[in-house]
Amino acid sequence: MKIMVVGGAGFIGSHVVDAYIQEGHEVIVVDNFSTGKRENVNKEARVYELDIWSDTEQLESVFRAEQPEIVNHHAVQKSVPESVKNPVFDAKINILGTLHLLDLSVKYNVQKFIFISSGGALTGEADHIPTTEEMDPQLISPYAISKYTIEKYLHFYHITFGLNYTVLRYANVYGPRQAGGGECGVTPIFMNNLLNDQPSVLFAYSDMPKGTTRDYVYVEDVATANVLSISKGDHSIINIGTGKEVFTEDLYCLAQSIIGKNIPLIREKERTGDVKRSALDCSRAEKLLGWKANTPLNEGLVKTFISMRTASGQQTQ
């Protein structure tokens, strides 16, 4: 099939591109390279550099020329703190930019739209962990609002125009090519600091001295879910994670053991707006997609470390 991956130069999107190409699909990458990297993009993919929000005429010309059968949407303003500071910008990229893609998908007869949402941002402070897709979303940031808004728009486009879709709500994805920065970048932040003999900061609550908990899922497992979503999970919202809570301090200790260094954490008080606990119930993914996370955290972190160390020019042992 011919698949357009929007945001295909990014950390997760580029792995999805690789997985699609490995399965024999023809892939078109659309990316503005604001955060994505050209070296991430598979050489077999055709690349269009443009912005889905501002370059609407160019975007339509790509749809007209390529006639994609599947649109996979990974382009996003992904920072929760930035969405709080600048909700208008967040809405432009995450809502209006996505609506441009949806309109063009209908106009050019796209068979399916795969949208990447956020499990952690939408669940907030859940009463039950791991959380299911049925839980009422906790819309405590513009980022969460924008993701949930598009989920509702997808339902509208389906019942009104017949556009098929699958929503994948990711847990905290980690792995090779991930850049440090923000909560989702805690794994490369820890590893970069350890490689450079620098301390890391742990934000912790008085009743949770080991920090927050998160559900860490390896990027190649996530890419597999995107492959399966081509033909499965129609009109569904599906969690993609492991269902396991991991304390931030435990993640750091595991990274220390892998890298072979012991650098104490700097402990600070919790950050405003942080979700204390998060993990996703992924039984629906197994039922509808035949998917489950197969990479243990230790194994995924070793692969991530080897990739980071190779990229930095250091020898692996």
TrEMBL record:
Coiled coil: none annotated. It holds the Pfam family Epimerase. Residues 3-241 form the NAD-dependent epimerase/dehydratase domain. It comes from the Bacteria. Belongs to the NAD(P)-dependent epimerase/dehydratase family. This is UDP-glucose 4-epimerase. It comes from Lihuaxuella thermophila.
